[in-house]
């Protein structure tokens, strides 16, 4: 079932990207603006990520967070370059409003988002920058990286 979920998720990502083109052609402009919608999605990602901590069965929550992440990227793609830059520079402020483990868990996804926003890309394995950047997908056939709480700087240096 997880393998099928991974395939469906990839198809949804492609469909979402096609929607951006359609939205531009039709001229849709939501009242709060794309930047505000993207910010709201990231707030939802943070809220859902907070629920992963000590959750014995977090996979549904991780999938929901990944769906919100995909919506964030969709809305971000519709922002102007100035709006994108402003929002990307403020994502750390939002993670700071949540328990510390939220920023730690989301750090690889945020590094990946910044990488892609700067024109970079991921290889097929979905990681970059020596594993510090990750593609945030919800479905996996193994253990999801968001489940693991990354070591703190003190733990990593011994």
Break the fold down into its secondary structure elements and pairings.
Layout: H1 2-26, H2 34-50, H3 59-77, H4 81-95, H5 100-117, E1 127-128, E2 133-134, H6 153-157
Helix pairs in contact: 1-3, 2-3, 2-4, 2-5, 4-5
Question: How would you describe this protein?
Answer:
The protein is built from six helices and two strands; from the N terminus they run αααααββα. A two-stranded antiparallel ribbon has the order 1-2. Helix 2 (34-50) runs parallel beside helix 4, helix 2 (34-50) packs across helix 5 and helix 4 (81-95) runs antiparallel to helix 5 (100-117). The longest helix is centred in the first third of the chain and has 25 residues, at 2-26. The protein has one domain (2-148). The protein starts with a helix and ends with a helix. With 158 residues, it is mainly α. The chain has helices spanning 2-26, 34-50, 59-77, 81-95, 100-117, 153-157; strands at 127-128, 133-134.
Which characteristics define this entry?
2 strands, two-stranded antiparallel ribbon, 6 helices, 158 residues, mainly alpha
Oligomer: single chain
Approximate helicity band: 55-70%
How many helices in DSSP terms?
6
The SSE order reads HHHHHEEH
Task: Report mean pLDDT, rounded to a whole number.
Answer: 84
Number of strands: 2
Spans of at least 5 consecutive residues with low confidence:
154-158
């Amino acid at each position: 079932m997880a393998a099928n979920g991974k395939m469906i998720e990839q198809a949804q990502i492609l469909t979402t990207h096609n929607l951006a083109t359609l939205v531009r052609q039709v001229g849709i402009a939501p009242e709060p603006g794309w930047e505000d919608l993207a910010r709201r999605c990231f707030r939802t990602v943070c809220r859902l990520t907070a629920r992963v901590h000590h959750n014995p069965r977090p996979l549904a929550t991780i999938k929901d967070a990944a769906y919100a992440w995909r919506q964030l990227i969709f809305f971000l793609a519709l922002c102007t370059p100035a709006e994108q830059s402003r929002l990307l520079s403020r994502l750390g402020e939002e993670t700071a409003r949540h328990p510390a483990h939220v920023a730690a868990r989301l750090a690889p996804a945020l590094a990946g988002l910044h990488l892609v926003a700067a024109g970079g890309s991921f290889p097929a394995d979905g990681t970059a920058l020596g594993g510090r950047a990750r593609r945030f997908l919800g479905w996996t056939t193994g253990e999801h990286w968001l489940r693991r709480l990354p070591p703190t700087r003190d733990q990593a240096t011994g």
